[in-house]
Amino acid sequence: MAKKLPMRQCVGCNEMKPKKELLRVIKTQEGEISLDATGKKNGRGAYICKASDCLKKAIKTKGLERSLKVQIPEEVYEKLTKELEDLE
């Protein structure tokens, strides 16, 4: 029997994609927001495509803020954008 692929929704484009293709953004217990490349860190997670367009959309629609249930400061978005560009 084929193993079921875990699917997650991108907070930018709202498309369902396999979890492995998406980046996880987490909010830790301390309220720190960061990219979780391993997908294993503890914290509330939101998923986003590995495209800067999706991050821009998520910032515009406040998709990340809704998923993580927290107000996200501008410098955090800048850091995420930079980290994403490094990965591309």
UniProtKB/TrEMBL annotation:
It holds the Pfam family YlxR. Residues 8-81 form the YlxR domain. InterPro entries: YlxR (IPR037465), YlxR-like_sf (IPR035931), YlxR_dom (IPR007393). PANTHER family: BLL0784 PROTEIN, YLXR DOMAIN-CONTAINING PROTEIN. This is YlxR family protein. It comes from Candidatus Scybalomonas excrementavium.
